[in-house]
Fold this protein.
Amino acid sequence: MSVTNNFLIIEHKTSHTHYDFYMELEQEIKSWIIPNGLPQQKKEKKIAVQDDPAVKSIKELKSERNFLDSYGRGDTEIWDRGSFTLETNKNIKIIFEADGEKLLGKYLLHVPNWGKWTKKTLWTIEKIS
């Protein structure tokens, strides 16, 4: 069964510009820090560092312009927002179809074997269609 929720991607301009990716998953916010941008081509993979969300809802983020995350304090700008249809949501595997302005298509977020043994759980995000 598929469920439609919202996502928000914030470009966070710190000494190491990165993207903060927030998803509403079953009335809970999940977040990842993506240091090297989001995949735009099929089969392209990027590292995504699981992070503790600083907010309880995406609505709180829409008005934030300056906040602190694991990479530090810095100016923020909304890079993309939209909805997604959740196809799979397991502890280490999420498949979703994104419908944003920049993030479009089907994506796989998952924890590879090597991602489990780090201080913060490392995921990969891959565009699969």
About this structure: Strands lie at 3-13, 18-25, 28-34, 45-51, 66-69, 72-90, 93-100, 104-110, 122-127.
